[in-house]
Design goal:
Helix content is about 35%, strand content about 20%. By secondary structure, the protein is α/β, with parallel strands linked by helices. The protein has one domain (about 5-210): NAD(P)-binding Rossmann-like Domain (Rossmann fold, 3-Layer(aba) Sandwich), CATH 3.40.50.720.
């Protein structure tokens, strides 16, 4: 039975991802901010931006090797032109969307088995090439920063034997994506898991959408 840790699975894409892995026979550990909020049997408490909590999680999971470490966490502070973004909002979004996911990978890296996968939920909005329409400046910037930091991580850990993935799940109907988004997570996330399973063992960094197609940086 393969083992997975899904960071940020209280609701939305993370919760659906954990449930889909369950259906495919994975043993799944999840994290939520308070712990015990999703009703899942193997749930840990983690505020991802708190380094002390992250280190404590690392100690609790010592001796639990992982085949998949998946980080799913992001916030948005609305469609505000960058010149009007409050400094505290900029800092909060960048810490949550870009810095903290990489801290998770760095802290939990050694739990992942050789040949395992580390993955982060990114977004097409982090693609500089595809940024051709106005709006959501801060969110786009945070995802582009995430992608760049993941590239640096992959370079630093190039010889660890891990597959490294940035995943664009598409625009889904979640609290973050909004009620008018075109995609249903129950339909898009199984495709994401298809990609995770197909890419296992690739030992490279790729930025892919839910269909397994390359997203331009």
């Amino acid at each position: 039975m393969p083992h997975a840790l899904v960071i940020g699975a209280s609701r939305g894409l993370g919760l659906v991802l954990a449930e889909e892995l369950d259906r495919r026979g994975w043993h799944v550990i999840t994290t939520t901010r308070q712990g015990g909020t999703s009703g899942r049997p193997h749930e840990e408490a983690l505020e991802m931006t708190d380094q002390a909590q992250l280190r404590a999680l690392r100690e609790r999971l010592r001796g639990h090797p992982l085949d998949l470490l998946f980080v799913n966490a992001a916030i948005d502070r609305g469609n505000v032109p960058i010149g009007e973004v409050a400094t505290e909002d900029f800092t909060e979004v960048m810490i949550t969307n870009a810095l903290s996911p990489l801290r998770v990978l760095e802290t939990l890296h050694d739990l992942v088995e050789p040949g395992g996968t580390v993955a982060i939920m990114s977004s097409e909005q982090g693609s500089i090439t595809r940024n051709t329409e106005p709006g959501y400046d801060l969110y786009k910037a945070s995802k582009a920063a995430l992608n760049q930091l993941m590239r640096s991580y992959a370079t630093r850990h190039h010889d660890d034997g891990h597959t490294k993935l940035l995943i664009d799940p598409g625009h889904n109907r979640t609290r973050l994506g909004g009620p008018d988004a075109p995609l249903d997570p129950e339909e898009s996330i199984p495709r994401v898991v298809d990609v995770l399973e197909k890419q296992a063992g690739a030992r490279t960094l790729r930025f892919l959408d839910r269909h397994g197609e390359v997203v331009p940086w």
